[in-house]
Automatic annotation (TrEMBL):
The protein's name: Peptide/nickel transport system permease protein
UniProt-listed PANTHER family: OLIGOPEPTIDE TRANSPORT SYSTEM PERMEASE PROTEIN APPC, PEPTIDE ABC TRANSPORTER PERMEASE PROTEIN
Domain ABC transmembrane type-1 per the UniProt entry, residue ranges: 61-250
UniProt record similarity statement: Belongs to the binding-protein-dependent transport system permease family.
InterPro entries tied to this protein: BP-dependent_transpt_permease, MetI-like, MetI-like_sf
Record key words, sorted: Cell membrane, Membrane, Transmembrane, Transmembrane helix, Transport
Membrane topology: Multi-pass membrane protein
Source taxon at top rank: Bacteria
Major subcellular location class: membrane
């Protein structure tokens, strides 16, 4: 968990730093120094258009994190109430909500994201919407499963005897006790959202130029593998490290919660 937290913390720090400073303008084109190797002026060299690779990676961290956090945040805001409602009401309400979630699960996540992004048009906002939509049933099911196990506990029975309704009990007693489980799932889904964002940008349906994106950097760099392999390797490593960080953090949180 500490390793994952350190990686995620570093990623967030780089993303925040890119808001106020980068070694060069990540969108600035300077053909005179195209494909320049790493140097004091350009720490990781330049790409085929003379753009500074280090600056693009820093700005790409901001874009990838922003889209992923927006997508997962929106999914949490919608999925948690659905899961709590399904667990509290049960019966046909539970069946209807969960079968609706199963319909979304019948399609691959990236395919849904590509279809939505292609329909709505490319862009950061639409990419976040597409990624978030698939994650709504994920959090709905996780919330429902965790909440249902608590509805049989004695303290919930005491709250019901005190005259509190199902929705009040869900907000005051159920939700605080399942936040840890939801947080673990959110961390894991963030790693998947990063991959989805990179995939959408890779096929041209994510963040659009001149805003930098790790996925688009990877797509552009693969055509130059024989000349400048770092242009594909560096954004690929950035995606790998970011996903690894969130995955390790999620696994560590889950292990700690299980021990408790």
């Amino acid at each position: 968990m500490r390793t994952g937290a350190a990686i995620v913390g570093l990623l967030i720090a780089v993303a925040l730093l890119s808001l106020v400073w980068t070694p060069h303008d990540p969108a600035a084109i300077d053909v005179a120094v195209r494909l320049a190797p790493a140097s004091a002026a350009h720490w990781l060299g330049t790409d085929q258009l003379g753009r500074d690779v280090a600056a693009m990676l820093m700005a790409g961290a901001r874009v990838s994190l922003g889209v992923s956090i927006a997508a997962i945040g929106g999914a949490l805001l919608i999925g948690i109430p659905i899961g709590l409602l399904a667990a509290a009401r049960g019966g046909w309400t539970d069946a209807l909500l969960m079968r609706s979630a199963d319909m979304l699960f019948a399609f691959p996540a990236l395919l849904i994201a590509v279809l939505l992004a292609a329909t709505l048009g490319p862009g950061a906002g639409n990419a976040a919407l597409a990624i978030g939509l698939f994650n709504v049933p994920v959090f709905a099911r996780v919330t429902r499963g965790a909440a249902r196990s608590l509805w049989q506990r004695d303290f919930i029975a005491a709250a019901r005897l005190a005259g509190r309704g199902p929705l009040a009990i869900s907000a005051a007693h159920i939700l605080p006790n399942i936040l840890g489980t939801i947080a673990v799932q959110a961390t894991i889904q963030l790693s998947l959202a990063l991959i989805a964002e990179a995939g959408l940008s890779y096929v041209g349906l994510g963040v659009q130029p001149p805003a930098p994106s790790w996925g688009r950097m990877l797509e552009e760099g693969q055509t130059l593998l024989g000349i400048a392999p770092r242009l594909a390797i560096l954004p690929g490593l950035a995606i790998l490290i970011a996903v690894l960080g969130f995955s390790l953090l999620g696994d560590g949180l889950r292990d700690r919660l299980e021990r408790r």
